[in-house]
Design goal:
Layout lengths: L1 H53 L5 H26 L7 H32 L7 H23 L3 E3 L5 E3 L8 H16 L6 H23 L6 H56 L1
Antiparallel strand pairs: 1-2
Helix pairs in contact: 1-2, 1-7, 2-3, 2-7, 3-4, 3-5, 4-5, 5-6, 6-7
Length: about 280
């Protein structure tokens, strides 16, 4: 009887060790996968930034887009620090992990606020947009940043244990208020001013929101896959291509107007000579 109990105990111990090993392997693969997503997103963001550095545009709309790229880069780097430091022991990891989590949560609201500014500035070229949108988003962003400041003391959004393990806080749902509200505002603006915007611009705004929502859905369905960062990056890429399309169309328009102006100047120069020659022929 004792031998049977010992055998059952040894078998259960082997099962537990195998389960722990499988869990460790899963965590390693999951961490490597998320780090790869973050690195890919960083590369795409850097390439877009280099493009705009080489092709400067001083418009206010473009300044917002540049700041969007900068915030997205910081957002991804902060998330990357979390995947590198989580559950690993190193003298500098707790500090790096804490700073990374704080920046990650704080920059989210700022990123979406800049996005809203970009959309409002873009639509304002057709018609003035109400300032209520920015007032609401600005107020929520301030509350969000206050939440980030008190989180290390209260564990509102997240907790970092003594074992350097990241855990969601009891108020983590409040973290999503700014992204959800701003996304709703962008949809509302796109619907309200759809007659002023061309179909491509309207589709771009809806695509941006769609990518952000899809990232959240994937995050919920596949636990441990932090897909928000790459999906936000893809959404910014959609804006990037729309900006490039608008720039190309504007350049073609400017070129066409310049050609028409040159034609008018040539005609204005030819007509006096033609009139003079005609009068000279009649007089002769």
């Amino acid at each position: 009887m004792n031998f049977y109990v010992l055998q059952v105990y040894l078998n259960s111990d082997q099962i537990d060790r195998k389960g722990r090993q499988n869990m460790e392997n899963y965590n390693i693969i999951n961490t490597a996968f998320n780090i790869s997503l973050d690195i890919g997103s960083i590369v795409i963001t850097v390439l877009m930034s280099i493009h705009f550095i080489r092709n400067p545009n001083t418009s206010k709309e473009m300044r917002y887009f540049r700041w969007m790229c900068i915030c997205n880069g910081i957002f991804i780097l902060a998330d990357l620090s979390g995947w590198i430091c989580n559950e690993y022991a190193h003298p500098s990891y707790p500090i790096l992990f804490f700073l990374g989590r704080f920046v990650y949560y704080a920059i989210t609201a700022i990123l979406f606020l800049i996005l809203l500014q970009y959309v409002i500035k873009y639509v304002s070229s057709f018609r003035t947009v109400s300032k209520v949108y920015m007032r609401i988003a600005g107020g929520l962003t301030c509350l969000h940043l206050i939440g980030c400041i008190i989180t290390p003391f209260t564990g509102l959004f997240y907790n970092i244990t003594e074992e350097n393990l990241y855990q969601f806080g009891k108020g983590v749902l409040f973290y999503n208020i700014v992204p959800v509200v701003v996304s709703g505002m962008i949809v509302a603006i796109a619907i309200r001013y759809r007659k002023l915007l061309n179909p491509r611009a309207t589709l771009t705004l809806f695509s941006f929101v769609g990518f952000c929502v899809l990232g959240q859905i994937v995050k919920v369905l596949f636990y441990g896959v932090m897909s928000v960062n790459p999906y936000i990056t893809l959404a910014i890429v959609v804006l990037f291509f729309n900006i490039q399309y608008n720039r190309d169309m504007q350049q073609k328009k400017d070129k066409r107007e310049l050609e028409e102006l040159n034609t008018k100047i040539m005609l204005s120069q030819i007509q006096p000579h033609f009139l003079y020659n005609t009068l000279a022929t009649i007089h002769g």
